[in-house]
Amino acid sequence: MSSMDWYAHKTLDNGVFWIQERFYESGNRANIWLLRGSHQDVVIDAGLGLRSLPEYISSKGLLGEDAKRKKPLLAIGTHVHFDHSGGLHQFQQVGVHEAEVDALANGDNFETVTWLSDREIVENPSPGWTARRYKVKAVMPTHILQEGDVINLGDRQLTVLHMPGHSRGSICLHDKENKMLFSGDVVYDGSMIDWLPYSAVGDYVRSCERLVEMVDKEEVELVMPGHYNTFGAKRLHRLATNYISSAGACHKVSTCAVKSVASLALRFSNSCIC
């Protein structure tokens, strides 16, 4: 299967493209965001990496006619879980938060939570492909991101917000001028997952408190999440406050139990990758 068949995209306002993997039918299918800037273009998350994302972007002309005059496309992982980081190795420039640099550089398929099944891939990307052989390919990040870093696209800037909880290196990217938040898996319109390796409920609560504060200060109008559809400030406020209110002692105990089981299952699953 070609890259042209594997991916599909929608053109949104303000130089934003929404890319998805057509034949990965799963709640884990991540949104891939492409932002065009006057000097730098940025991809936020890169999917599974089963077909060439750079080839698709180039062939579809998503970078415009002046692409050769720009810096190489920068791919940023909002975190290193497999559904977001699997395609990062395809890019010359790669950025992730400093807390997850080693996991990506070492191809650590435990921390990347690599858990893919054949039934989720409804058409094989290449002959003989099987999910049990899938793993996140190691890549050394060229951009080690920290809280407060600003990624300059020329006519727009993205501020890095370290928002741990879902994973230890989870980030949001905030376009302050346009009041847009690229939230990765910190928040999306669904149940927040806090029971994976390196998840932490206490960190997640503090991250959600930051999100509520951003809404209260009218700093966010539109959220571009890591999964599912976009949503506005009111929904963001509700999702964040709901998590905060639910994260009591009982929740922490049950989450710890599920986390232990999930970690054991991941250890076993990844020991079978060949």
From TrEMBL:
Q: Which residues form the Metallo-beta-lactamase domain?
A: 29-227
SMART domains on file: Lactamase_B
Transmembrane regions listed in the UniProt entry: none
Task: Report the CDD domains cross-referenced here.
Answer: MBLAC2-like_MBL-fold (cd07712)
Which PANTHER family does this UniProt record tie to the protein? ACYL-COENZYME A THIOESTERASE MBLAC2, METALLO-BETA-LACTAMASE DOMAIN-CONTAINING
Q: What is this protein called?
A: Metallo-beta-lactamase domain containing 2
The top of its lineage is: Eukaryota, Metazoa, Chordata, Craniata, Vertebrata
